[in-house]
Specification:
This protein has a single domain, classed as Rossmann fold, CATH 3.40.50.720. 24% of the residues lie in helices and 27% in strands. The chain is built from eight helices and 15 strands. Strands 3, 4, 5, 8, 9, 10, 11, 12 and 13 form a nine-stranded mixed beta sheet that branches. A six-stranded mixed beta sheet has the order 6-2-1-7-15-14, with helices on both faces. It starts with 6 loop residues before the first strand and ends with a helix. The chain binds flavin-adenine dinucleotide. The site of flavin-adenine dinucleotide has 42 residues, from helix 1, strand 8 and strand 13. One of its GO terms (molecular function) is FAD binding.
Length: 372
């Protein structure tokens, strides 16, 4: 299709959801996509941009927040897993962000056989005699971890290569985009888009014209260390929000230590006492994060991990009561014309796990809107 015949689409949001949706739309060949956002992957990390802070492991069905998983999310995770597996196995740039890794998860009760995790490669129930003391149940399987900055930059490059573009701007009301498109945020004459796709994550709570009160943050505090000798993912969802513990190695040799799950907690900076607790819990869960030379001579302690720390951080998972919203709405433009608005936000703790599948769903909704 000639460039001038393509419909111009503004995708609001440059997190993993917005960028994946923008790539999926641009690669359709019918659209010219501009991503409008006030935070991008190349910016310094901030609490305003959750995608930098994800543990970014694929655990379909296990990293959700209670009450925020719906069928759309389950379907999106299933579809996304296939795409992530293909990208990880590819020869190209995309594969650099992925690490295929053996994983262990401890649980209070066995998983129902319908849980998608039971279909993961190498899935096994760990025999009782091999479990640590006071552990009721355990499973092992193979999964992928993703390095968020590498994956996000890959998405930006893929979007640009397909002809999409990025504009920085902060939209206070959806009607500003409806009337002026991304162009007004770039200081250019207004250019009303043919459609808007809203991937604003937590921003959907305050964005004028959307103001979705069901959206709320689930705060996660994390620590990143450099420990390339750790090549086992271990997770213990834990009995309470402070004891949600995970050790997630990445391809770079960095290891992400997570962290907490506090609902409605907006505090943007790491709390030192929680950092200490994360180190204690993750070291107890996985003593292998300590340097091998220390482990060779004695039991490691938290002080052995402190020199390995690269970063502490906080991310706010964009949760939504009732689950992810992937839905078509119609806006009325100034001239009375109807303009489709497709929502794709509220992925809680599963934005990477659901990114490709929810993008597909948004693409389908937009296609159906233009077909009406
Ligand atoms: C500790 C932690 C661990 C996690 N672990 C995992 C995991 O293992 N697996 C997994 O799949 N997920 C995980 N997640 C969740 C994952 O990070 C999120 O689901 C995902 O990043 C959400 O992406 P998003 O694109 O919706 O939001 P964001 O990344 O927050 O992006 C929102 C975008 O919208 C823009 N925006 C919003 N409002 C406006 C506005 N009004 N004007 C302009 N721009 C606007 C922002 O600038 C930004 O670009 C984890 C999260 C945390 C915090």
């Amino acid at each position: 299709m000639a460039n001038s015949d393509r419909k111009s689409i503004v995708v609001l949001g440059a997190g993993v959801v917005g960028l994946t949706t923008a790539v999926s739309l641009q690669e359709q060949g019918n659209y010219n996509v501009t991503v409008l956002a006030d935070a991008f992957p190349s910016d310094p990390k901030s609490v305003k941009y959750t995608s930098h802070w994800a543990g970014a492991i694929l655990l379909n069905g296990m990293s959700g927040i209670d009450g925020t998983r719906n069928q759309l999310m389950i379907d999106a995770e299933k579809a996304s897993l296939e795409v992530h597996m293909k990208l990880a196995a590819s020869e190209g740039e995309a594969s650099r962000a992925y690490l295929r890794i053996p994983a262990i998860m401890y649980l209070d009760t066995p998983l129902p056989s319908t849980n998608p995790l039971c279909q993961f490669p190498d899935f096994k129930i760990i025999p009782q005699e091999d479990l640590p003391p006071n552990t009721a149940h355990g499973i092992s399987f193979t999964t992928l971890t993703i390095d968020p900055p590498l994956h996000l930059n890959y998405l930006v490059q893929r979007l640009s290569a397909a002809g999409g573009s990025l504009v920085r701007g902060s939209a206070m009301h959806i009607n500003a985009i409806l009337e002026g498109g991304a162009a007004i945020f770039a200081g250019r004459p207004p250019q009303a888009p043919a459609a808007i796709v809203n991937c604003s994550g937590l921003g959907a709570r305050t964005l004028g014209g959307v103001e979705d009160g069901a959206v709320f943050p689930v705060r996660g505090q994390t620590v990143r260390i450099h420990a390339p000798w750790t090549r086992q993912l271990i997770m213990n969802p834990g009995p309470n929000p402070e004891e949600h513990t995970g050790v997630f190695p990445r391809a770079s040799g960095d290891v992400y230590l997570v962290g907490t799950k506090h609902e409605d907690d907006w505090y943007p900076a790491p709390r030192p006492e929680l950092t200490r607790k994360i180190l204690e819990l993750t070291l107890a869960l996985c003593p292998e994060i300590a340097p091998p030379e220390v482990r060779a001579v004695r039991k490691p302690v938290v002080e052995d991990i402190l020199p390995l720390i690269l970063e502490e951080g906080v991310g706010l998972r964009p949760a939504r009561k009732g689950g992810v919203r992937i839905q078509l709405e119609w806006l009325t433009a100034k001239d009375g014309g109807k303009v489709p608005l497709v929502h794709n936000y509220g992925h809680a703790g599963s934005g990477y796990e659901g990114s490709w599948g929810s993008a597909d769903e948004a693409v389908k909704l937009l296609g159906s809107a233009f077909a009406q």
